[in-house]
Amino acid sequence: MKKMLLIIVSLIALMFIVAGCQEVSPEVKETNLAKEKAGIEKPTKSIAGQAVNNMAACLNTGCPQESWPGDKWCDAQCNNAACNFDDGDCQKDGSSCSENHQCESFQCSNGICGDIVVKLTSSCDEILILNAGDSALVLGGHNVQYVKQDYAGGAHFIDVDGETLFEPSTVSAGTYVLSSGTEVKIMDNLQQDYAGGEHQVKLCFNNEPQVDCAGEVVSLNAGDSTLVLGVHNVQYVKQDYAGGAHFIGVDGETLFEPSTVSAGTYVLSSGTEVKIMANLQQDYAGGEHQVKLCFNNEPQVDCAGEVVSLNAGDSTSVLGVHNVQYVKQDYAGGAHFIDVDGETLFEPSTVSAGTYVLSSGTEVKIMDNLQQDYAGGEHQVRLCFEN
Fold this sequence. Notes:
Blueprint: H1 2-20, H2 26-37, H3 55-60, H4 84-87, E1 107-109, E2 112-114, E3 126-131, E4 135-138, E5 142-147, E6 157-160, E7 163-166, E8 175-177, E9 183-191, E10 199-206, E11 216-221, E12 225-228, E13 232-237, E14 247-250, E15 253-256, E16 265-267, E17 273-281, E18 289-296, E19 306-311, E20 315-318, E21 322-327, E22 337-340, E23 343-346, E24 355-357, E25 363-371, E26 379-386
Antiparallel strand pairs: 1-2, 3-10, 4-5, 5-6, 6-7, 8-9, 9-10, 11-18, 12-13, 13-14, 14-15, 16-17, 17-18, 19-26, 20-21, 21-22, 22-23, 24-25, 25-26
C-alpha cells in the first residue's frame, strides 16, 4: 500500500514538473513581450486571477497563463465566463474590434474590445520617465519637457513640441493626442509635495503617424510670410497691441487665430485645403509662436467661360456682353457690392462663396474674395462667368 501511494505521489510530482517545463508558444511569448513593452508589470499569483473562482477551469479553456487574467490587458484566449472575462480586462460580450482596430465604447486590445477607462493601450512605441525639470527626445522627433515652475502660483506642466499637455498636480491619468496625431498616455504619476519629495511621470508614446500631405508643407513664425504652391500668399500676422490677436491669413482670407485653435482643416475659396499640422504657442517673454501647415489638393480652375478679377471701384466687360462693376460705397452705412447689368448680386463683405444666376441665364461664381478692412487694405473678387 505504501509503495502504491509513493508511486501515485511520484506520478503527480512528475506531471507538475512536465507541465512547468512545457514550451511556451511563440504567440504567448509575443504577447508577453508586447505587454512588457506596454509597461504592464507581471502580477503575482495572489493578485492575478483573484476574481477567477477556478483557475484550473480557466486554464482549461485555452487561457495560456495564470498571470494573464487581471493584468489590465484584454486577452482573447481568457475572455470567457470561466476566466471572469479575463478577470475584468475585457468587455463581457467579447465583441471584436473593427478592421481599423477601433471599438465603439472600448479600447481595442489584442483584437477584443476592452474597458478603455482602466486598460492600457495594446502597445507602446516608446516609454519615457521624466523627473520635474527633465527633458528628452522621443520617437526621434518629439521634444518632451517636464517644466518646473516653483514660484508662487506656478504649476509644473508637461510640454511636448511646445504643446502643453497637462499639469501633473491636477491630472493622474489620461490619453492626449498631439497635433501630429501621436498619442501620449499617462502610465504613472508620482507627486510628493513635501520638501525634497519627487515629481515624476511615466508616459507612453504611441502610433506615430505618417505625414499626410500631398501638397506642400510650410512652417511660419509669427510675422513671417511666404508663397505656397506657387500661388498662395500666406502670412502669420502679428498683432501685439492691447486686444490684438495673431492670425493666419491666406490670400487675404483670415483662417484662424493660433492662440484659440490647435487643430483643424480649412478650405480656401479656391478649394485648396489648409491643415494645421503643428501649433506652438509660448506666451511667456521671448517665447515662440509657430505653425506648421499643409496645403493640399490644389484644384484646377473650373470655369468654362471667362474669369475676371475686380478691385473695389473697378468695372469691365465680360463675355462681350455683360457690364460688371465692383461698386464702392464708402460713406457711413454704405456697403460695397457687385453689380452685373444693373443686377445686384452680393455684398463681398458678407458673402465669401456662392454661385449666382443672372436673368439672362449666365452663371456667376465667386472664386476668390479678398477683404482687408484695415486702412489701405485691398478689396478684390475673382469671378467666373459661365454658360
